[in-house]
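Anyone up for a design puzzle?
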């Protein structure tokens, strides 16, 4: 019996080591954009890619953002999303990372999605079947930045509000934009609209939906916030 337990223990240790090696292999795979393909081109020698800090890497004397890179594959007559490694991004579309990034003040706010330095707020999403995963500079002042709600859905400064689900600007006044939580559901609200998962709706739509919230609660929210 002890011998069986010993062999079982070795078996699970072996599986654990295999899993760790698989994760290391993914982490050591890097991909670059391709103009002629919808998929990335893998870097031949991953040892040439140097980790600088957080999600910043250097390759061929250029700085890159790194994003998780996924790809759809046919597995057993079905579609499965496979993690391929890290996608290296050298610009925000119009600006080279080398030209705009301040490494000294660069820091992570949310892993692989939200970063800042003294000049900019950077937002990105993981890549799935994109030639180049998007990296945006949000129109937010990093010195006045605040994540509004505990569910990490909205971020703002004194001028703008953004949705952290998709990086899109919400057309509202930050001074009037509030967060309310009802039965675990987070809503954004200003003087005209109510936002669910960053999508705006009229007070009428709010009343007609969310059946788990009582009509009296909905009415009180509209009376208090909608002017």
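Challenge accepted. My sequence:
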């Amino acid at each position: 019996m002890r011998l069986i337990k010993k062999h079982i223990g070795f078996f699970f240790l072996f599986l654990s080591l295999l899993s760790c090696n698989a994760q290391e292999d993914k982490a050591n795979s890097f991909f670059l954009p391709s103009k002629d393909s919808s998929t990335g081109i893998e870097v031949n020698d991953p040892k040439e890619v140097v980790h600088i800090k957080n999600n910043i890497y250097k390759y061929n004397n250029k700085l890159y953002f790194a994003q998780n890179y996924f790809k759809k594959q046919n597995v057993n007559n079905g579609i499965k999303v496979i993690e391929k490694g890290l996608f290296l991004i050298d610009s925000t579309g119009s600006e080279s990372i080398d030209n705009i990034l301040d490494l000294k003040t660069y820091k992570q706010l949310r892993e692989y999605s939200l970063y800042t330095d003294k000049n900019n707020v950077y937002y990105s999403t993981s890549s799935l079947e994109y030639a180049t995963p998007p990296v945006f500079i949000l129109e937010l002042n990093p010195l006045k930045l605040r994540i509004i709600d505990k569910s990490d859905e909205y971020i703002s400064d004194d001028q703008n509000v953004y949705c952290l689900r998709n990086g899109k600007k919400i057309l509202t006044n930050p001074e009037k934009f509030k967060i309310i939580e009802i039965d675990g559901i987070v809503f954004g609200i200003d003087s005209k609209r109510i936002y669910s998962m960053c999508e705006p709706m009229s007070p009428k739509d709010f009343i007609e939906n969310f059946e788990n919230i009582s009509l009296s609660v909905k009415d009180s929210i509209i009376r208090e916030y909608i002017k």
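A detail worth pointing out: Helices lie at 2-27, 97-100, 203-208, 215-225.
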